[in-house]
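Single Protein Entry

Contents — chain, fold
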Amino acid sequence: MDAEKSDAQVKIRLPASIRDRLKASAALNRRSLMREIEFRVIQSMSRDEVHRCTPGDTQGVAA
């Protein structure tokens, strides 16, 4: 397998309460815990890209 195309492994530390919520959500969505975390990170990053202001754009900027 090409190293550039393989998934990176990342260790994270989460409060048990967040892990439990993620596990419950993963079960509801029929995903593994890791796939649920991956899904949510991708979703969050996509939202960030949509809401990022372009130069000169003042929408979404607090006055």
